[in-house]
Amino acid sequence: MFRPLHLGICVARKLAATTVKKFKTQLVSERDRLERVIADHERELEEARMTETSAERSPDPGSAEAGSMNFEYEKELSLGQNTVDLLRKVERALARIGDGTYGVCESCGQAIPVARLEILPYATECVTCARRV
């Protein structure tokens, strides 16, 4: 898995170019999908805010309906934030492809197994290091 260099430094074996290309294609597709989801979500939230602020739709702030609406709004914000976080991970993986560090664990420097990358193509750590968190 590691190739020793002189001076005792080891580096992880690089992924094959075809493998990196496959993951890049998947990541670009996922990035584009997430960007569309975020744009749609932001548009829907804005439409919901506009509807909820109209006088005829605004419930009494102390009512159960208002509590339910607030809960749904908070849930939607949370889902949107999770999508943004995932997009950041995908963009980071694409940047790592660009700088040649994709597939190398950021913590220990060992190669991230291809099987892990197939499940989480934006993984930045091997399973052992990810479990330490």
Q: Name the average pLDDT.
A: 81
Q: Calculate Rg over CA atoms.
A: 22 Å
**Can you list the strand order of the major beta sheet?**
1-2
Number of domains: 1
Query: Which fold name corresponds to the CATH topology?
Result: Four Helix Bundle (Hemerythrin (Met), subunit A)
Low-confidence stretches: 1-10
Examine the secondary-structure arrangement and name the CATH architecture: Up-down Bundle
Distance between the termini: 24 Å
Strand-and-helix sequence, N→C? Answer: EEHHHH
Overall body shape: elongated
* DSSP, total strands: 2
Largest sheet: 2 strands, antiparallel
How much of the sequence is in beta strands?
A: under 5%
Helical content class: 55-70%
Would you tell me the structural class of the helices and strands? Answer: mainly alpha
Helical stretch tally:
4
Question: In a few lines, what is going on in this structure?
Answer:
This protein has 133 residues and is mainly α. 63% of the residues lie in helices and 5% in strands.
Key traits:
disordered N terminus, single chain, two-stranded antiparallel ribbon, 133 residues, mainly alpha, 2 strands, Four Helix Bundle (Hemerythrin (Met), subunit A), 4 helices
